Amino acid sequence: MLFELRSVGLTRAGRAVLDGVSAGIPAGATAIVGPSGSGKSTLLRLLNRLADPDRGEVFYRGQPLAGYDPLALRRQVALVPQLPALLEGTVESNLAYAAGLAGKELDPARCLRLAGLSPEYAGRDVAKLSVGEQQRAMLGRALAQQPEVLLLDEPTSALDHAARDAIEAALAELRRELEIAVVLVTHDPAQARRLSDWVVRLEAGCVAGCGALEEVLA
Amino acid sequence: MIVPIATLGTSIHVSVGQVAASLALVALAAAISYWWKADLERDIGIAAVRSLVQLTLIGYAIKLIFEADTLWLVFVLLAVMVLFGAITARGRADKVPHAFLPLLVALALAGASTLGLVVALGIFEATPRYLVPVGGMVIGNAMTASAVALNRLGDEMHDSRARIEATLALGATAREAAMPTVRRALRSGMITLVDSTKTTGLIFFPGTMVGMLLAGANPTDAVRLQLILLYVLLGSVSIAALVATGLAYRNFFTPAAQLREPGGG
């Protein structure tokens, strides 16, 4: 398993956001599904240590996550948040910032193409992009770090159908071209069917199903 | 070699009646607040009473310190000012977790370094007559600047939470993720004094110069002393805002470079 969660619990403001979560996430494409407030995004944030669990343990490639340097881990396990949050400047300056943090050589045209954007976007001011374009620039920025795992938190929830289809097409293309694991949070079972082959289903902070797509979302 | 500023030797007498008469302007401020429902009448009243009591008490304290003419009393007075300054500024920085210590360090450093420098450069003598008023002015302005800076820092950290976390998610350090926010907060703390220094003499006359002119001092002396104080304040305000923001932003993050939950302390 790429990630393994063992009896993971996390409480915020007196509420158990995650409670006794035990699940495995293999390499490949995994969808974390469930209704709003079921703890999907929180679980995703645990995977690159943007948060730590109060109880239980998370393992990455067989090693406890707590043993990884959080900064080095986040450059291997990149997270793209639900809403775009780019730094001021151009698309390329954002890509360069991410690549610089990871110590990687930047190929802006390739990152943009993998994120479903044409190379002309490199010089565009991020403030002048649509939300869908910003979200794809966020994806490109994460790819500039050449991560081993891509964590996507509801990447299309704020987008219209056309923008959603563009992101989904970019992700499908990405998986064909790169050896990269994807963990995707979505509230939409149909999107999980389109983009993943493994599913973790959460309900009220607990695991309601974990396994191959056809078993959990039959 | 700079010759320390000589005793200016000017004094005027201000009667209690004159002070009482100036309260008419306080009543006017309260009336404006009342008519326009600005809801500041109580604050204006508290400000007037507190300024009266505090300034009267500090007046007597300064008199005692001048008469005793020992430096350790000056240090005690300035330390008390730093302490109360940090407590007051913390009230304006309520969105910053554990803001008291950064403010205390910022005010102490701003006061100590600025006063140390003006004495070392031979601008003022190391005597109570200079250290007390200049120290009070330095600490007061440093308090305002650091309170404004941390107030802005608290708002900005809240508003920029998504961007900061997205930057952390790339493997940036807490410092790298917070830097644009810290920079804006630092600028907020410094900009008021920078702007007022730019317009000094054009749009307004600063307090020291007005006070000296009212007291009958030579305008050239008044201007020179005012310039010294403005430059001293620019330095101290910058130090205070830099130290306060540079220490306080860390309190928003865990050691694992995670953003703390809002209100989590």
What are the defining features of this structure?
heterodimer; A: about 220 residues; alpha/beta; six-stranded mixed beta sheet; globular; B: about 260 residues; mainly alpha
Q: What would the principal axes of the Cα set say about the shape of chain B?
A: globular
Shape of chain A: globular
Oligomeric grouping of the chains: heterodimer
Alpha-beta classification of chain A: alpha/beta
Share of β-strand residues of chain A: 25-35%
Mean pLDDT of chain B: 90
End-to-end separation of chain A in angstroms reads: 23 Å
Average of per-residue pLDDT values of chain A: 90
C-alpha Rg of chain B, in Å? 21 Å
CA radius of gyration of chain A: 17 Å
Q: Reading side by side through the largest sheet of chain A, how are the strands ordered?
A: 6-7-8-3-9-10
Low-pLDDT parts of chain B are: none
Portion of residues within helices of chain A: 25-40%
DSSP helical segment count of chain B: 9
Distance between the termini of chain B: 51 Å
Task: Flag low-confidence runs of chain A.
Answer: none
Q: Hey, which two chains have the biggest interface?
A: A-B, 30 and 19 residues
Largest beta sheet of chain A, briefly?
6 strands, mixed
Q: Count of helical segments of chain A? A: 8
Let me know the largest β-sheet of chain B.
none
Number of strands of chain B: 0
Polypeptide structure, described:
The complex is a heterodimer of chains A (218) and B (265). Chain A has 218 residues and is an alpha/beta fold. Helix content of chain A is 34%, strand content 28%. Chain A is built from eight helices and ten strands. In chain A, strand 4 and strand 5 form a beta hairpin. Chain A starts with a strand and ends with a helix. Chain B contains nine helices and no strands. Chain B starts with 15 loop residues before the first helix and ends in a 17-residue tail after the last helix. Chains A and B meet through helix 2, strand 6, helix 3 and helix 5 of A and helix 6 of B.
